[in-house]
Amino acid sequence: MRSLIYVPIIHTTADLGSLAKDVEKISIARLGEKVWERHVETVRGFWDSIDRYFEKLEVSNLKIYQDAMVADGEIGQKIVEDGLKRGSKNYEIISKLIQRGTILVKTEDFALVKRERDWFLKITNAKHLTEKLSSYLGYRLTKNKLLRKRDKFIADRINETLNQGETGILFIGAHHNIIPKLAKDIQVREIKDTKKIREYQKVLLRRKIVLERFEELSAKVLHFVTAQESEFRSQNPE
After folding, report:
1. N or C terminus: fewer CB in 10 A for the chain?
2. Other beta carbons less than 10 A from residue 93's beta carbon
3. Which long-range contacts (CB under 8 A, 24 or more apart) does 200-208 make?
4. At a CB cut-off of 8 Å and minimum separation 6, what does 77 contact?
5. How far is CA 197 from CA 7, 183, 187, 191, in A?
6. DSSP string of the chain, one letter each residue
7. Residue scoring higher pLDDT (184 or 135)
8. What is the pTM assigned to this prediction?
């Protein structure tokens, strides 16, 4: 039996590197400062809850798979350190886990990750509206195919590198669809409700946000999938 702790994540601006300032500026302009500040607070609480979860879990020799992690070894460690310097809570948690004995594994194909990032840079760096719109439409036409390729690569890496009797931890954006592509003998334990996180992110993208629904989903993304968390803890007592 192989096990995978599945952590669907919400990216913070610190995870976006050079795109962070542009994304924050655009988001505030579209959502308004009140909703944006509430979103930042929700995401902070979301990551704090994940941090507390792993603090209480025995993690030595577990394998870590991370969204956009294109290397392991020294280069992978450098990527984690760079994320720490940017203030990424995701990479802060990974750094703590590595210090406690987990093993970082290359999760993604560099070329595929770079291709998606290049599209984002092209959109944000566009000087004129027509150029920005053209880049955005180009990305829309390719993003689903690109995402499917990334998902297959990630699932293949987990299938190939997670050995019998081992447990892995996957930190992955909620828009990914990895679980159906995993080997049948891998038992997945989802500690956050991926569907609720996806819905929360969709609400943020709407032109008109219903504040009541936004607040409701903000509360839900902070919670663990209680039944699966309880089952996992019963099999892994502190």
Report:
1. C
2. 22
3. 200/10, 200/42, 201/10, 201/174, 201/175, 204/31, 204/39
4. 98, 104
5. 11, 24, 21, 12
6. -EEEEEEEE---GGGGGGGHHHHHHHHHHHH-HHHHHHHHHHHHHHHHHHHHHHHTS--TT-EEEETT----HHHHHHHHHHHHHHT-HHHHHHHHHHHTT-EEE--S-HHHHHHHHHHHHHHHT-SSHHHHHHHHHHHHHHHHHHHHHHHHHHHHHHHHH--TT-EEEEEEETT---GGGS-TTEEEEESB-HHHHHHHHHHHHSSS--HHHHHHHHHHTTSB-HHHHHHHHHHS--
7. 184
8. 0.81
Domain count, the chain: 1
Q: Which band of pLDDT confidence, cut at 50, 70 and 90, is reported for residue 164?
A: very high
Integer angstrom CA distances of residue 213 from 27, 40, 203, 209: 18, 17, 8, 8
37: its two tokens = 């500040």
> What is the Cβ-side half-sphere exposure of residue 39, based on CA atoms within 13 angstroms?
24
Look at residue 230 in the predicted model and tell me its pLDDT: 46
Question: Which residue, 62, 50, 56, 94, is CA-closest to 76?
Answer: 94
Q: What whole-number distance in Å separates Cα of residue 114 and Cα of residue 132?
A: 19
Amino acid letter at 129?
L
Give residue 54's pLDDT band: very low, low, confident or very high (50, 70, 90).
very high
